[in-house]
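Lab notebook: predicted structure, single chain.

Context: the supervisor wants predicted structures on file for every construct in the current expression panel, including those that have not yet been purified. This is the next one on the list. No modifications to the sequence; it matches the entry in the shared construct table.
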Amino acid sequence: MSEQTPTPAAREPRTTAARLTVRDVLGLDLVTTWGPEVVAGAAHLDRPVRWLHVAEATDVAVMLAGGEMVLTTGLLLAGNDQAQADYIESMRRVDVAAVVLGLGRAFRTTPEPMRRAAERCGVPLIVLHRPAPFVRMTEEVHSRLLYGRFAALNLSDNIRSSLTALNLSGATLQQLLDEIACYSGCPVVLVNLAQRVLASAGDRASLSELLRDWDRVSRQVAELAGSGPVTVEPDGWIVVDLEARGRRWGRLVFFGYAGSEESGLLLGARAAEALAMHRLLGDRDHGWEEQAAEALLLDLASGAARPEQLFTRVRAAGLPVNRRTFVPVVVRVLDDGRTDGERDDTPELVDRAVAETPEAAGLVARIDPEGTAALLSIPYGEDSDAVVCRVAVRVRDALALRGRRAVLGAGFACSVLDEVRRSFVEAVHVADAAVAAPPDGPVARLGDVRLRGLVRLLRDDPELQAFIERELGPLLENPSLLGVLRTYMETGRNKSLAAQALHVSRPTLYRRLQRIEALLGIDLEDWERLTSLYVALLAHEGQTGPRPVPPRSAPGRA
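Prediction complete. Output recorded below exactly as produced.
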């Protein structure tokens, strides 16, 4: 994923509503033409309407399940005050959404016993002052309810398909959470049971504000949780309990979701399913805390980390961020020393070395088969170079005890997180360059690798590749002569030392050098041409040495 990759826009289905309230029904253009008037229970107009039911029977309550808006003319209630009150009382017991009374046939004005009973019972009572064909009203409302439910099912299918595809393609936790945030259109935060943030996605400014005051926000989240698998609050907060294999392990929290309660419940349920699948499909030897740290370091090492998410992701991974200096370090093992089948425990050794250095905190993870990275967080006032050296010495000593050698490359010290990505890429290149020429000290910096480091930094540049072809051309097809030239250069053009290193006689070396001159059409005594050849050799070594971590992209995106 390149730096310019845009954040996907929020998915359109976010605004789909799968319900109507009493207030919504009264606001329909069709209904307003019939002169509706709320004569009782005005405080309860936000009740959801599950269905409309037209009935004249006085005992209709026995046929209801709750949530209905009952339409009647009251024909069988006229002239009986007690029956009118009992009718409303029966509506309360079955929890109807509202009672709509069409005036004209049985009542010319609002019947007072029904009004008083409705007010007492908290049942919205609406009278229609103009003749209303109830069938048209039921058609209108039912079509909207059915459309909303169909749209909700469609939204559910879209979310499930999208998140399942990401899981099956091996997407990272961050990519999965980014997709969930796109569907919700609001910030989302994933926490463990201790309320520690594992990952987050969404608007940078909103997330920064939330995480800056996370202690208070997390207490509110804990208070909201527990009313069910998905809790939707009126202000748009959604708290989702996350489970896998029957055990609860965390929560997903949406902040400021603008859709309906039903779509919020649906979104939360689909997100929980996807995160449970991701956890089950993931590395069982590592918890999500370790996976979150690994995803962050992989993105930093490849240059794919989004600058606007660094603060939230670094803090989410548990690294101290206030008044700290950040230094990335990359470890490349030279001599493995492991037997076949023996597990590479380099990340564990680096993590232990960081833990044994009290002046530093750090995140450690493998970034490729031969590389392990650490992001060190060092308090202001500490000598960051000295701290990095102490960590490097402990790493090299721990590896030496296992018969392994390694080089460590460090980036520049960063006083702000915005610089970390550039420093991390530098650390990767420095470590790669140091593989060919290990430094004398415990850790290599950009200044230590000099020209070799420069050509490593530029090794993927097309112009440099063309330069290698021009300078070394015919020798690239003859590895033996290319090795002779390299040895000749590395021994300072000392023919005796070069012959010894190549295990050939001096006359044989002379003949091979003459052949190189003939193939390249140059004089090896020409210092300028010789310098160009040396740079081309370094660049060619950079092409064949350890490769940088490839940028990671979300599945299905450029």
